[in-house]
Each structure stands twice: as structure tokens, then as C-alpha cells.
Amino acid sequence: MTDTDNANVAHLTERQPVVTGPEMLASLVPPPQFDDATFESYRSDAAYPSQAESKALLEKFAGRGAPAKRGGFFSRAKKEPELKPGVYLDGGFGVGKTHLLASIYHAMPARRKYFGSFIEYTALVGALGYRNTVDLLRGADLICIDEFELDDPGDTMVMTRLLGELVSTGTRLAATSNTPPNALGEGRFAAQDFLREIHAMSDRFETIRIDGVDFRQRALDGHAVALDDAEYAQRIAGAVGTASDDVFGDVIRHLAKVHPSRYIRLIDGLSLVGLRDVQVLTDQSEALRFVAFVDRVYDAQLPIVATGVSLDQVFADEMLGGGYRKKYLRAISRLNALTHSAQQPSIA
Of 43, 107, 111, 219, which one has the greatest count of Cβ atoms within 10 A? Predict the structure, then answer.
């Protein structure tokens, strides 16, 4: 233990969160950092025209497109191509896909709409059962799925079936996935994989390609910030609000005892996450659980302070060359941003 043990310090390993099905359903809204996301606030990169083009297409999908031009008295208005009920945003992480997805959510005038990550929807099915989930979501005007995963065939099949039932009753869909930044061709392969895996619904989706570089890396040196023990203790003790303080290895073992759908509750009420003695992860299951945890920390925009191995090097080299490479690179991008944000008064 450090000398940071006081009333303002919590320990993730002592938390045993419980989340009910109705609570999970109520939580299907954009993460806090996207509460005010709009198409107008999306900062497209002029070096990548597909970003502005994608925004225009998505505004139309959300019902925000420019009004059709009126013809003369005897002329007929040009018929616009019919929009498909689903859009799939294909591109690398950090190019603003989640911002655009949240913009659709906020802009679409819908009575019932939901926004969640792929894992949140599959967790809902796990908690409530498939048929109950369908009944709860049936009648929704819009379902947004961030970071659609193609790694688990079983989960993909369940989601495809679920979305198929919802679309048949009029629900519109918007989904994103991710590919490594600046990986030529890999984004298009990801789109092909997505359409192949949801083959029963592939004709319902319009694929929209968004090129660009990870915005989180534009102002970073590429490495997560690692502190020494004294700096770490100072940051934990000086945190505004409640900081967590745990040994990294203990957190990794604790994550194995908590369902990923409950990770968000592990960080309830925190203003800072502290991880001591970070070690390289070599076990795939442990690494994937840590990725899911990082996603929740990033959604909550909680700064991270850490000692030991720099968090951008937490995944073993062989993992970065394996089938889950995209997930690990996304997590590294987020860890870099969160450790740098801990050096600032607040996250930008």
C-alpha cells in the first residue's frame, strides 16, 4: 500500500458492482464526453475529404440534409435515392466516428432511441435473455452500436438476429467499427468482414468510409506517461474528488471476477484512476478484459496515473500482431490520451 490511504481514496478491488437489466437499458445513451456532440461541432480534417463527405451523408440519414430544390411549375422534383435503414461507419479509430454516431443520436427526432457499445448490447441479452431484449427494444426508432465487434461468431450471430428483428419493425440502425490508423486497405477489409458476417442484413446497410489519423495522437508524443512512486503518490493525494489506488496485477485479477457489463460501475464516483506497478500482459483473456475496462474509463473521461511499465507497452508484442490487434491499438491510443490528460487540469 501507499501512504495515500484516506477517505478520498477508493480501491477497485474492493468493489463488487451489480447492474440490473432495466439499469443497463437506461444506460444506453452516449458517453458523457459526447453529451453535446453535434454535426456542427465535428471538426473534419481538410486533408481527408471523406470526413466532411461522411458528415453530409449522415446528416441526411438523421433527417438533417438540405431541403430538396423545388422545380418550376411544370417540372418534376428530382427524386432522391432511397436511404437504407442502416449506416455503417468504416474507418480507423480516432477519426471521429463515435462523435458522428452521437451526432446522429442527438439530431434524429426520435421518441425512443438507444446508444451503446457492442458489448453493452450483448451484455443486455445475457442479462435479460434474447426474447426479453427484443421485446424491450422493439419499437425503437434508432439503435446506435459503437465498435461493432466481429471477433466472437456467437455474439455476432446474436446481434445480427436481434438487429434483423428490429429493422423488420421499422428501427433504423447506425454502427461503427474500427481499423488500425493509416493501415492502407484494412478499413475496406473490415467493411467487407462486417457485411459478410451480417450477410442476412448486408443489403440494409450503407457503408460510409471515413479516412484520417487518430486525433488523440495529433498532440501526443506517442507514449503514455509513467510516473515514479513519489509523483504517483502526490497525484493520488492531490486528486480533486475520489481517486482509486490499486496494484495493477490485483486489478487484472479482479476484472476476471466481474462481468464486463459491470465495469462501468467499478469506476462510479471516481475522478482519477491510479494503477501501481504496471506489468506487460501476456495472457490474451486478461488483456481483452483490460481493453474492455479501458473503454469504460475512456467513456467516463477519467484521467489515469500509473507507475511501472508505460501503458502504451502493456500488451505483449505478439498480441499486437495477432487477431485482436485492432482492439489493442485502440486501447493504447486511449491510454496515451488518458495518461496525458492526467497531467492537465481536465480532459480536453
Answer: 107
